[in-house]
Design brief:
Number of helices: 4
Strand content: 15-25%
CATH class: Alpha Beta
Oligomer: single chain
Shape: globular
Number of domains: 1
Strand order of the largest sheet: 2-1-3-6-7
Structural class: alpha/beta
Order of helices and strands: EHEHEEEHEEH
Length: 131
């Protein structure tokens, strides 16, 4: 007779219950981000592919724990949204297919993830930011 170890409690998902705003205008990438974060327990807000729609949600004082923000949405730079997130103390990561020089000087200290996006690295970064 062999003994089978009793499984311990399932560790909580690292982003369980956290509300993550996803701002990305590339449909398939936005879907990949949302699915990956959802698997980690996050509650997804969005995804939003339009700067105005994303800004409206943040302006509404909607409860947001963190955000993933594409630097360029439909040829618009997202720095006004980033300022609003910063003013509300909402941690965020930028995603971009451009080099770091495309980031406004006031945001040079923010975390920037290049595209193609490493979804696992993004999830780790968010988990670290909101703990």
């Amino acid at each position: 007779m062999t003994a089978h170890p009793t499984p311990g409690p399932t560790p909580p998902c690292p982003l369980a219950g956290r509300r993550v705003l996803v701002v990305e205008d590339e449909y398939f990438l936005a879907d990949d981000i949302a699915r990956a974060l959802n698997r980690l327990g996050a509650r997804i807000i969005g995804p939003f592919g339009d700067l105005g729609d994303a800004t409206e949600i943040v302006d509404r004082d909607f409860a947001i724990d963190a955000a993933v923000v594409d630097v360029n949405l439909q040829s618009e730079m997202v720095f006004p949204l980033a300022r609003l997130l910063r003013a509300r103390n909402i941690p965020f990561v930028f995603t971009t297919g451009y080099d770091r020089n495309s980031i406004d000087s006031e945001f040079q200290g923010e975390r920037v993830l290049g595209k193609p996006l490493d979804i696992a690295a993004m999830a780790r970064e968010l988990t670290h930011m909101i703990k």
